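FAQ
Q: What does a multi-component entry look like?
A: The components come first, one per line:
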Amino acid sequence: MTDVIIAGIGQTEVGEHWDISLRDLAYAAIREAIRDSGRLRPQALYVGNMLAPNLSNQAHLGVLLADHCGLTGIEAVTVEAAGASGGAALRQGYIAVKSGMVDAVLVVGVEKFTDQVGAGVDSALATTTDSDFEAIQGITAAGQAALIAKRYIYENKVPANGFAGFALTAHANGAGNPNAMFRKAIKPEAYAKADMVSDPLNMFDIAPVADGAAALILTRADLLPHDYHHPLVKIAGSASSVDTLALHDRHDPLGFVAARVAVEQALQKAGITLEQVDFFEYHDAFSIYAALALETAGFAARGEGWKLAADGSIAPKGRIPCATMGGLKARGFPGGAAGVYQAVEAATQLRGGAGRCQVAGAKTGMIESLGGPASTAVVHILRTD
Amino acid sequence: MTDVIIAGIGQTEVGEHWDISLRDLAYAAIREAIRDSGRLRPQALYVGNMLAPNLSNQAHLGVLLADHCGLTGIEAVTVEAAGASGGAALRQGYIAVKSGMVDAVLVVGVEKFTDQVGAGVDSALATTTDSDFEAIQGITAAGQAALIAKRYIYENKVPANGFAGFALTAHANGAGNPNAMFRKAIKPEAYAKADMVSDPLNMFDIAPVADGAAALILTRADLLPHDYHHPLVKIAGSASSVDTLALHDRHDPLGFVAARVAVEQALQKAGITLEQVDFFEYHDAFSIYAALALETAGFAARGEGWKLAADGSIAPKGRIPCATMGGLKARGFPGGAAGVYQAVEAATQLRGGAGRCQVAGAKTGMIESLGGPASTAVVHILRTD
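Then the predicted structure of the entire assembly, as tokens:
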């Protein structure tokens, strides 16, 4: 089978887009991706979205977006896997192209979180936990992450402000990304005095909910336009795995088993080792998830993921650059779009077009999209020659 | 590529299941499907669901169900395309197996509509229309169908009670299906005096929202257990297409273009003609949609679909038996599960196990799952040798 190529990429700025509808937001990213691909016409659309039925009173996004973009006649569905919806939509698009059943696929992640504020978003986000046994008790996404962080700090004797490096790196990198929600580096003192949100996680340990859309055109290498002028970025590996939904059902709350399994499988499918990965876009919805992502991927021993943030290993010139364009923390976390942003950013890096965020000589990037505390994990490995 | 086989089928009775949770409802169908397949172990789960984030406060169903069924470690996502969610989930499962990337897939459709009543369900259903331009004006799913039916009756001079045959056939067939919500034949007089719901559609023109779950195990023919004892039911064709979302954007509100395109493509992929189709499970959420499904598939000329119901052509011994186990009207309409029920019922027919509902000598069945007024259409053709 020929390689699946990310032929086109598009994205909107991440932020608070109260002045633009969900469909127009998606259209902006889709138009850019189609243009970028050399005007490939997709036959299928996979929409990654998390909460539009709740927050925007709009389901059936496949038709909504295909219609709005002049693509009626193609096939179109929404793929939902909580915070991993974007990664899951990418994976379905990848499978469709790899199968040979369609020639070109459009993957779009879109989310509008900020039309509603505060409790509305928290309640909607809580529908991605176990509703009957967790949400009904009042747990929130941040509450779940805080429980995990407490245990992690206790088991591993993490010092005060031990997670600071994740936010500092993300914000330093976001400063160079014109599409990031926050484009300002922060200082350790700012982290140290930030308001507590869900003890032990402060404001800088938690990625901001945001609005945004990102899009990809996938096709097979032999179907690219003759005048295609970008370096080829191929999807070398793709894998996904799920764990228990409720945190209380985990034998090991710090295990993030689904993330470990998905990374192992994706590397195996790509036929590479972890040492060949030049940068890692993790799902830093919460700093503790970034720490666990580093450990379960194999970049750090158990209990030592936080040290890679503290010692500069995840910085652009470190051992394994992470959140290279700001991550969820500084680029912003637009729900089901996040996983697609990761792919757009990784492709930008591999094309050598990341500007101030560029990881020098990057040939292989790994992206990981999580739903809940790695209840779902989707991992893709992108490569260029 | 080898054929994709429906190796296992499972379903719950359709009805009002206030006493059982969404996950337990799905589990009952999943357990039956896995047993029926000879205990194949799926590597991927595709959940067809329409409104659980709204009606059950539960998103992230892939993990919920994989976890509840002891299947953590596999991959799992929800596929949403309004009323066509079940058909769309089946299509994603089919693509995954056909691609060779997974050996066995579990497809489950599940919906709980009746925990909420009246306006709650109507509002939730309205999120599948164009929220910004239709739902906000107060349109409901039944209202949309009524607008189409009015035009259809006007253009085609349909007499009073012209749609009665759809409900009469569905209820007569449902009487023989132990899993149907309504198992009682109705008389023409009952139809004639039924309460109007959304003029010109009366109570019997509208399928009842219901709770239910249905499940399928898909695999490749060469991977079936050695002692597999069911007749082989293969997926010979699969296709999907979308139209505009808003009804007011259609050039031809009676055209149901997406349904026409999906049928044409599915027949072409299966390499058969319409004459070879022995029975047709259409999406009779509203009787008018059944009439248009018959026309756009090619079983009737434009404007004459209703006559096939009036003259007995869709009866079990007619030219093209439809809704053979009750259809959405009598088996019941459990949202995102409906398309999976269609596949379970078609496989039952092709195995020759439909009991009193059996279509004699059936070798080829076509199933069509619609989202909205054929805003999404998904068609599958199932065959046995």
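Q: Is there any commentary attached?
A: Sometimes. For this entry: The longest strand of chain A covers residues 212-220.
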